[in-house]
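Dear colleague,

Following up on Tuesday's group meeting, I ran the structure prediction for the two-component complex that the binding team flagged. I've pasted the input sequences exactly as they went in, so you can double-check that nothing got truncated or mislabelled along the way. The structure tokens for the whole assembly follow below. Feel free to forward this to whoever is handling the docking comparison.

Inputs:
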Amino acid sequence: MIPSYYEFHNPVKIIAGNKAVDNIPYELSLLKARRPLIITDQGVVGAGLLQIAVNAFAGSDAEVGAVFEHTPPDSSNEIVDEVARLFRDNRCDSIVAVGGGSVLDTAKGVNILVTEGGDSLLDYMGADVLKNPLMPLVAVPTTAGTGSEVTAVAVIANPKRHIKMPFTSFRLFPDIAVLDPRMTLTMPPKITAATGMDALTHAVEAYSCGQKNPVSDAYSVAAIGLIRDNLLKAVKNGKDKKARFAMANASLLAGVSFGNAMVGVVHAMAHASGGVAHVPHGVANAIFLPLGMEYNMSKAADYYGELLLPLAGEDVYLSTPKKERPQKAVEVIRELNRALNAASGMPITLKEAGVAKSKLEEIAATAINDGALVFNPKAVEYDDALALARAAYE
Amino acid sequence: MTATNTAAKYRPREKTFRTAVVKAAFFAMGRVLESAAVLDEDVKREVDSWKDPFTFMFYVMPKGPAMVAQKKNGLLRYLGSEEIDADLVFYFKNMEAAFMICSGQIGTPQAYAEHRAALKGDASEALSVIRALNYVQMYLFPRFMAKKVLKRVPPMTPRKWLNRLAIFTVGLPLGLGRFKG
């Protein structure tokens, strides 16, 4: 289905493959930058990945102006405000973000503040409100993943209000996305599973929600095929470089897709679960994906049926009668969740994820105010969100 | 050959009719929202959840028109069409986009899906305002139009039919907020 109007935009230069990180100083020179702030977290530091990025600057004209290595798992506007101060105090002229979604989104938030000025990220909430080009930003994902290296969205928590705030602007696109096989090799199995399911959710929701278009659909299908063939392999054998690199590519493809087609109720529930009960984003997406698909079935069944082909392969697709394909697609995802749970311990219910039953009402009340719901094919009101939260509980 | 500028031969046509429709729609939206906040329990619930004071505005780029509403001391009032520095701003990128939405050709979800509108402010507050405006559209549009623009049309209960009567006879011309204040 081609919509009556759509927009697709992805200006990010992608450099991917063997020793890609070593090209960062050269790419910065093309952007007339030479003194980056590196933003990362302790997990990346502990895995030795920050040193790989820093080593790239040996012998180059660029020098690392500052390093912030304490990005928390859920980045917040307060952290962004502090890191922006670090950028200014050290006269940096660009940002290199090495890490998962939280690091990449923190970097985008910092970029807003250091360019637009001011002391509070909250002044820039909304969609399409940034007026000026931002500082050069290089995104080096170490998970596979949020796809944040190729999106114009930053999702940043507001800890005072227990919500996750979306910041959307085409100016938030990183200039460069770097996929280096070394950067995801050390991801533990549970995080590999959860971030892989995040990527799958991006691809599925982008294919089935209100902003879908033929260009984003192509990216979704490509992403799903790579995830089908490589996610479980990467979870079971983290040293499988081919599987790791394939998943990094899948995450990027899914990121391009959802960056141009948005997401829906699964992400609304996941954001709420993250904001209220600190459920990791990928875990929440894995839990809610089959439930969200069943909820949307009356409006999106045809799309789910089409997705059975990349989800399960041609043998399953051709042997499944057409009218059974949508529900079969949901079952394939449930089976994948169970396999990932068995292989890595990734939670597949909110109870397993440590959520108290008393939090479900707050999760539902938060979810109905999530911007992702604008694009969901079916209306979602409080009772609907509560029913989803209860179904996800155990 | 000399290049000649012929721009003077081609002038953009003024969108007088579209502007008039959008202005009328903004006026109706403001008055109906103000009145529904008095009469309709579902709209009251949304308005009660907003911070106080709270202003939001619909605005057609680059030069208007606008629809401004404010909640203050628990009461929601339509403030008119003067552009202000609001807490939440829904921008329509151009008059064509605003006309499509105000004339019921497309709904809010489709408008955002097609990038015809932008938002400045808190997305979670915006969702609540949009929910309140869904009821406004339910009151303003006949059901066949409401079905086209809303994902789910709230059911018209007997109470809501009475509300609609009050809105069209008193709320639209006068605004019911003035009687509650």
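Residues 187-393 of chain A form a domain with the Dehydroquinate synthase-like, alpha domain fold (CATH 1.20.1090.10).

Cheers,
M.
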